[in-house]
Specification:
The chain has three helices and twelve strands, in the order H-E-E-E-E-E-E-E-E-E-E-E-H-E-H. The protein has 256 residues and is of the alpha+beta class.
Length: 256
C-alpha cells in the first residue's frame, strides 16, 4: 500500500497538469485549416465566439491571418478589422466575409469604415494593402476569413475590431445587433503574441450605424506564441473535465 499510493499521487499530479494545459490551450487550437494554411499564434477572442489565427513577419511587416466566427444568421456575415486611428468602428479598415446564400461560398470585401453609414455592395480601398483574401465555411456554421495585410514598418501593436451580422442585402452587410457582446468586440493585438491590452469599456450607444463591419466596445485577451497553433489562455475551458477527472481519481485512490 505504501508504494502504491505515491504512484497514484504522481498519476494525479500528471493528470492535473495535463488538464491545466488543455484548459490553457483554448478552443482555437482545435481549428483545422486547409492544406497550406498554418499560423504561428491563435487567440480566442473574448466576444462573439470568435478566434484569430495569425503569423506576423516583422522583417516584412506582413500579417497573415485567419479570422473565425459564426455569422449571426445562416446567410449573414463576419468581419475583422484594424483601426489605425481609434479603438472602435469609425476608422476601421475592415475585411468582411459575406455568406449571402446557404449554398454559395463566402465572398470577401474590404471596407474603409468612415462613420455610421450603410456600407455599399462594392469594396472600398483600405489603408493596409491586402492580398490573399479568401473565405470558406468551417464547422458549426462558422466562416473562416483569410488575408494578408501589409502593415507600417516597425508596428508592434494594433487595435483590432470584429463583428458578426445576420443578413446580406444586395451584396452589402446589413446592420449588426447591438447586444453587449457586439459592443465589446474590440481589443489591442500585440503582434509579438505575448499579450493583448484590454480596451476600455464603452458607454452604450444611442442608435448606431445602419450597417458596419466594426463595433463599439472594449475587451482584451491574452495570447501565447509558439510554432504551429498555440492559443491564448482561456481560463473557463476544460474546468468541468478537470473536476470530473479529479473526482474519478479520488474515488480510485479511496478503494486501492
Amino acid at each position: 500500500m505504501a508504494s502504491t499510493v505515491p504512484r497514484h499521487l504522481a498519476l494525479l499530479v500528471l493528470v492535473l497538469a495535463s488538464a491545466r494545459a488543455a484548459s490553457a490551450a483554448g478552443a482555437c487550437a482545435a481549428e483545422k485549416f486547409p492544406a497550406g494554411k498554418t499560423y504561428a499564434t491563435c487567440e480566442d477572442l473574448p466576444q462573439l465566439g470568435a478566434a484569430l489565427h495569425w503569423t506576423y513577419d516583422a522583417s516584412k511587416s506582413s500579417l497573415s491571418l485567419a479570422f473565425v466566427a459564426a455569422p449571426a444568421g445562416p446567410n449573414g456575415w463576419v468581419a475583422w478589422a484594424l483601426n489605425p486611428t481609434g479603438e472602435g468602428m469609425a476608422g476601421a479598415q475592415a475585411l468582411v466575409a459575406l455568406k449571402g446564400s446557404s449554398s454559395a461560398a463566402p465572398s470577401v470585401k474590404t471596407y474603409n469604415i468612415t462613420g455610421y453609414v450603410p456600407l455599399g455592395g462594392a469594396s472600398t480601398p483600405i489603408a493596409y494593402p491586402a492580398t490573399d483574401l479568401a473565405a470558406d465555411s468551417g464547422s458549426g456554421g462558422k466562416i473562416r476569413l483569410y488575408g494578408k495585410l501589409q502593415l507600417p514598418k516597425g508596428v508592434k501593436a494594433v487595435n483590432q475590431v470584429w463583428q458578426v451580422g445576420s443578413s446580406v442585402t444586395g451584396g452589402s452587410p446589413d446592420k449588426h445587433a447591438f447586444a453587449a457582446g457586439n459592443l465589446a468586440a474590440k481589443a489591442k493585438l500585440v503582434l509579438s503574441g505575448k499579450a493583448t491590452s484590454p480596451a476600455p469599456a464603452p458607454a452604450p450607444m444611442a442608435g448606431g450605424p445602419s450597417g458596419s463591419a466594426g463595433s463599439e466596445g472594449g475587451a482584451g485577451a491574452a495570447t501565447t506564441p509558439s510554432a504551429g497553433k498555440s492559443p491564448s489562455a482561456a481560463p473557463t475551458v476544460g474546468v468541468s473535465s478537470l473536476a470530473l477527472t479529479v473526482l474519478a481519481l479520488m474515488g480510485f485512490l479511496a478503494i486501492v
